[in-house]
Structure formats: structure tokens, C-alpha cells
Amino acid sequence: MSKHKPKIKIARAYDPPETEDGCRVLVDRLWPRGVKKEDLKLDDWLKELAPSDTLRKWFDHDVEKWDEFRERYRKELDSSSEAIASLLETAAQQPIVLLYAAKDEAHNNAVVLKEFLEQRLR
Q1: What confidence tens digit (pLDDT) does each residue in 37-85 have?
Q2: Apex 57 CA angle, 86 and 111, nearest 5
Q3: SS3 labels along the chain
Q4: What is the Cα–Cα distance from 77 to 94, expressed in whole angstroms?
């Protein structure tokens, strides 16, 4: 077992990669507009961990719906146990960066997913 203390960060898909990023995982269902695949320096694209289309469209980045979105999205994540387990296994080995495209850095699915993963690691 690795002695690596799991480190999970989030970053916009439009931000340049950093050398200490580790495993870079896109966690959006849709590819970031205007970004070339080679520019993203991606290790994985876990669409199944993104909010469902129904939830994503309902939320529509409306901050008023944030608390309800977090609750609904966490329920969806509860049913993604295989993908979550795989991501947690990776986090035990190396740092992970969850990439997202939303403009709002405080209210997006990567923020909720990071909290969800960190709770599982405790």
C-alpha cells in the first residue's frame, strides 16, 4: 500500500496543466468547447461521474439551485460505485486533478465530486 496522502484538486479545463498535477481526469459529460484533445493533457474522461443530462440541464449553473444540485448529484454519485472506487484507487497512488469547463469555480460538479471523494477517503 502506498504511503501517498491522497491529494485531489480541481481545475478548469481551460487552465494550463501544472507539472505536479498527477492524473488529470475530465469529469464533465460534454467536451470543453474550443479545447483540443492534445491541449488538455488528459489521462481519463469519466463521463459516468458527470451529472446526468437531466440534472445538468435542471441546474443550468443557477446558484439559487446549488444546495439542491449538490444533494441530487451526491445521490447520483452514490450509484456510480465502480467509477468512484477506481478514482479513489488512483488517488491513493498519485495526485488527481478533476477537470471541468464551467465558468463558475465555486458552483460546479467538480466541487461536489471532490468533496464526495474526500469524504470517502476519510
Answers
A1: 888 999 999 999 999 999 999 999 999 999 999 999 999 999 988 999 9
A2: 45
A3: CCCCCCCEEEEECCCCCCCCCCEEEECCCCCCCCCCHHHHCCCEECHHHCCCHHHHHHHCCCHHHHHHHHHHHHHHHHCCHHHHHHHHHHHHHCCEEEEECCCCCCCCHHHHHHHHHHHHHC
A4: 22
- Return the residue matching grid coordinates 439551485: 65
Residue with cell 464551467: 102
Give me the residue label for grid cell 439542491.
Answer: 68
Report strand pairing: 96-100 vs 8-12: parallel
At residue 86, φ and ψ (nearest 5 deg) are: -65, -45
Strands laid side by side in the 8-12 sheet: 8-12, 96-100, 23-26, 44-45
- The residue count of the chain comes to 122
